[in-house]
Design goal:
- This protein is α+β, with helices and mostly antiparallel strands.
- It has three domains: about 110 residues, 2-Layer Sandwich (Phosphorylase Kinase, domain 1); about 220 residues, Transferase(Phosphotransferase), domain 1 (Orthogonal Bundle), CATH 1.10.510.10; about 110 residues, Tumour Suppressor Smad4 (Sandwich).
- The protein contains eleven helices and 18 strands.
- The strands form five sheets. A six-stranded antiparallel beta sheet has the order 2-1-5-6-4-3.
- The termini are far apart.
Length: about 500
């Protein structure tokens, strides 16, 4: 252990940190760990930056009234409950305090250990990648060039990547609801753990409060919105210059989700614009940016594009078209983080385990029961494993009139939650995540077992006690709950 030093916080309290030679450095700050590594103390590389009074005001606002990891009662974001604060505390490494001495800085929670490589997981040891202790940045898992060096058990599967996408969309939605923009959302500032399907947003202290605190950074290559690149040569105060904001976050968010799900960059195709690599990169990510899956212009489409946005189902396909066709050069057309969150959750209910034990993805979106094939390996789903629950909610004040409330693809040991039981329930940070029922295949029959639902009724109208089950056969219709908002289920099998 290095030398123990002491820092004074803005409230006058003291904390310790460990001074070591060559501390980790980012673009703006360098970092020292606490003796027990539970938090970090970060100081700015450029001391002149720390003298800016607006910097302190911004960080004070970020730590206080805009903080989604604190309840409103504790001085955090408006409308934030204790439950919401605890939920988002695991989604962000949010600054907790300002350091005033020995120099200006901040205190942040340390990244949870699952966001570091616990060992050198390279499959080619002779490359000396020495990944042990390094941050799990998403490029290790989404880049084809890098993935091949990582042990299979670290890579996760498609379901884990979808779970990460939901988590990230929810985090950015909450940030935008608080009136903030990240300004540098990228693979470097979102750490991931594909083994658990989790992610955490970092580098929070440079957040933009629109109209109050301007951005300090342009962003990270590959994630910078085209309009920012296209106007970056203009003077900072020029009204035509586009700076990072919530709209540019939405571009970066779409890029990250696309990378998580399809393991490639949405704009990196074969088309070139210049022999100069720097100019070509500027044009292909900026003024000339073209989606590799643009349905109207295939000039940037790779030849080996086997799995596409169509394989992700209509909800995600339409959002990717909006993000990278309609909204690529028109920020107002980009899907919001909330739209991404809702579409991803809807897609989650269509996940199906691939029946090929050697399939690398292990899961896929079964959105087309007429062609139930895993797009990653080509394995067809057996007919007797095709069971779909069509959820319907009752129109308010219209007894007997039902409208679609979503679909659920069925697989063995699949859990069902409150949002599968009660209408207008969404699995956000406030949701009850206790399992209400589950589906299993027993002796060749598919059953929906009541785990914790009061008032489930069978197709014949009888109550289904807790611990009992409904047989899922083609054409069966039953109520998940006899509550006024209880969902109706129609079952289809083998088609």
């Amino acid at each position: 252990m290095g030398q123990i030093a002491e820092a004074t916080l803005a409230d006058g309290s003291k904390i310790q940190y460990v001074i070591k030679e060559n501390p980790p450095r980012g673009g703006m700050k360098y970092t020292y760990f606490a003796p027990d590594k539970s938090y970090v103390v970060q100081f700015f590389n450029n001391p002149e930056v720390a003298k800016d009074p607006n910097l302190r005001k911004r960080i004070e606002a970020i730590i206080g009234k805009y903080n989604p990891t604190l309840s409103e009662q504790a001085g955090g974001a408006r409308g934030n409950s204790d439950i919401m604060a605890r939920y988002f505390a695991g989604k962000f490494c949010w600054p907790t305090a300002i350091v005033t001495q020995p120099e200006f800085g901040i205190v942040c929670p340390a990244y949870p250990p699952n966001y570091f490589f616990s060992e050198n997981v390279s499959v080619v040891p002779e490359l000396s990648l020495e990944l042990k202790g390094k941050d799990k940045k998403s490029k290790w898992f989404t880049s084809a060039k890098l993935r091949r060096f990582i042990k299979e058990q670290e890579l996760g599967d498609f379901r884990a990547m979808l779970q990460m996408s939901i988590s990230l969309a929810r985090s950015i939605r909450r940030m935008h609801q608080a009136g903030l923009a990240h300004s540098d959302l990228s693979c470097n500032n979102v750490l991931v753990d594909p083994t658990t399907g989790s992610c955490v947003v970092i580098d929070i202290d440079s957040l933009v409060v629109p109209g109050v605190y301007p951005p300090e950074v342009i962003g990270t290559g590959g994630y910078i919105a085209p309009e920012v690149l296209e106007t970056m040569a203009l003077p900072f105060g020029d009204p035509q210059r586009k700076l990072p904001c919530s709209y540019t976050d939405l571009h970066a968010l779409a890029v990250l989700i696309y990378e998580y799900l399809l393991l490639r960059h949405p704009l990196s195709g074969p088309k070139t614009y210049s022999d100069d690599p720097n100019l070509d990169d500027y044009l292909s990510m900026g003024p000339k940016a073209l989606f590799i899956e643009n349905p109207n212009d295939r000039s940037n489409r790779p030849r080996d594009l086997n799995v596409t946005i169509k394989d992700l189902g209509p909800s995600l396909e339409s959002l990717f078209i909006r993000a990278f066709v309609d909204g690529l050069h028109n920020p107002n057309e980009r899907p919001t983080a909330m739209e991404w969150e809702k579409a991803l959750v809807k897609t989650w209910d269509l996940l199906h385990p691939c029946e090929n034990p050697n399939c690398a993805a292990k899961w896929f979106v079964l959105h087309d029961t007429n062609n139930p094939v895993c797009p990653f390996c080509g394995t067809r789903v057996k007919k007797d494993n095709l069971v779909r629950l069509h959820l319907k909610s009752q129109l308010r004040g219209k007894a007997g009139q039902w409208v679609s409330a979503g679909e659920v693809d069925v697989y063995h040991n699949m859990p069902l939650f409150k949002w599968h039981v009660i209408a207008n329930t969404f699995p956000d940070e406030k949701a009850d995540r206790n399992m209400m029922a589950y589906v299993c295949k027993h002796q060749g029959q598919w059953l929906l077992v009541n785990h914790n639902i009061q008032g489930m009724t069978s197709p014949s109208g009888n109550l289904v006690p807790i611990g009992q089950a409904v047989l899922l056969k083609d054409g069966a219709v039953f109520r998940m709950s006899n509550d006024d908002k209880g969902l109706l289920v129609e079952v289809t099998c083998g088609r």
